[in-house]
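Posting this for the archive.
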Amino acid sequence: MDMQMRRGLLEACVLAVLHRGDSYGYQIVKDTKPGLEISESTLYPILKRLEVAGCLNVYSAEQNGRLRKYYRITGEGKEKCRSFLEDWKEVTTVYDFIKKEVQGHA
């Protein structure tokens, strides 16, 4: 898969997980497992990009005596999710066309 497309998909998956509520790195990795495998070393740069883009807010909270970094989706992040879903309609239309052409001429 094209790296740019994969990057966009991973960002959308992370935002989708955070759309249901605040979370922290390890939990986000676990919550994305049904859809994809993502490592923590892949996740943290994504979280940083989304934070810099204004899609996430970051805060710390104590958990079992230590500080844990939590991520919260912003209005801009929610809009990015909605935009992804709209764009995906176009992607599936293109996919269906390519599939039809390739399978029709196999």
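The first strand starts at residue 23 and ends at 24. Residues 17 and 27 are 10 Å apart (CA to CA).
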